[in-house]
UniProtKB/TrEMBL annotation:
Coiled coil: none
Protein name: KHDRBS Qua1 domain-containing protein
KHDRBS Qua1 domain mapped to chain residues: 6-56
Native species: Periophthalmus magnuspinnatus
Family matches, as Pfam families: Qua1
Length: 91
């Protein structure tokens, strides 16, 4: 397509201008160039849940606590910590 014909040379030019010390950037650009050349479409890496219209959401996560290292940790402390982390995740 027209967009791909414009995008691919831009990616290759950007890769060619990068210093070799930017190894991670070069790997990402190479992967994107390969994806375009193979004709693959962009992947939707994450799907989001609408929290305002979806009802009855049940979130379940298993948390392993090293009790030998932390014998004084109580379950209510873990619950409070998990709730705080989840609240931060939502904001």
């Amino acid at each position: 397509t027209g967009e791909t014909n414009k995008y691919l040379p831009e990616l290759q030019a950007e890769k060619d201008t990068l210093d070799t010390s930017f190894t991670h950037s070069i790997k990402l650009l190479t992967a994107e160039i390969d994806r375009i050349q193979k004709g693959e479409t962009k992947k939707d890496s994450e799907t989001y849940l609408d929290l305002f219209t979806t009802k009855n959401i049940k979130l379940k996560e298993r948390v392993l606590i090293p009790v030998k290292q932390y014998p004084k940790v109580k379950i209510h402390q873990v619950s409070a910590l998990f709730f705080t982390l989840f609240s931060l995740f939502l904001s």
